[in-house]
Write a structure and sequence with these properties.
Length: 198
């Protein structure tokens, strides 16, 4: 059974209430969904991802389509959650948390390992976040989420040509921001592997 057949099997199982089927969908899509929301909403990303999956769980039995359609549907829900979150935050003041409350929270078991694991992803997402909002969203949806131009265009209510232009401009700005001085140095072995593939 091919990848699309396996996806459809898990989707159908999840639609019938099978927990393993839903877990498969979550594992497949959560990393790119999380990255998209981190670019768009920063520290609220985890809450918005949870809200998104909750909506998916509530309405999954109404979904019809293949894997690409599912991803488009998922990211459309996430985008709407983000828009709602922005509207709510524009109407209410922030409530600051006292530092003493935070000092009582336990840390991770190995913060150094956690930081090392996330540093390159965080750096890339932080760089994408410096783009104008439309460009950041398009780059994240096209490159990280892997959605087609037509899906992104429909989600954003923009013509496909505009989505292509936004992606192109965003990627050019990112390429200009990543100068050779900021790139990690290649070892002789890395250079050999790169030249061998050329």
């Amino acid at each position: 059974m091919g990848e699309s057949g396996e996806f459809e099997r898990h989707l159908r199982a999840a639609q019938k209430g099978d927990e393993d089927g839903f877990v498969h969908l979550w594992r497949l899509c959560q990393p790119s969904l999380s990255r998209y929301l981190r670019v768009m909403a920063g520290p609220a990303a985890e809450d918005l991802a949870s809200d998104t999956w909750l909506q998916v769980a509530r309405t999954l039995n109404t979904f019809e389509g293949d894997e690409a359609a599912f991803k488009g549907w998922l990211f459309t829900i996430a985008r709407h959650r983000h828009i709602d979150w922005c509207r709510r935050n524009s109407r209410r003041k922030e409530q600051l948390v006292d530092v003493d409350v935070l000092l009582g929270w336990a840390g991770t078991d190995d913060p150094v390992a956690a930081v090392e694991e996330r540093i390159s992803t965080d750096s890339a997402l932080a760089l994408i976040s410096t783009l104008p909002r439309d460009q950041a969203e398009v780059v994240t949806l096209r490159v990280i989420a892997g959605l087609d131009v037509s899906v992104v265009a429909e989600m954003m209510g923009r013509p496909p040509g505009t989505v292509r232009v936004l992606a192109h401009r965003g990627l050019r700005k990112l390429a200009g921001a990543v100068t050779p001085a900021r790139m990690p140095e290649l070892s002789d072995e890395d250079d050999l592997v790169r030249n061998k593939g050329a």
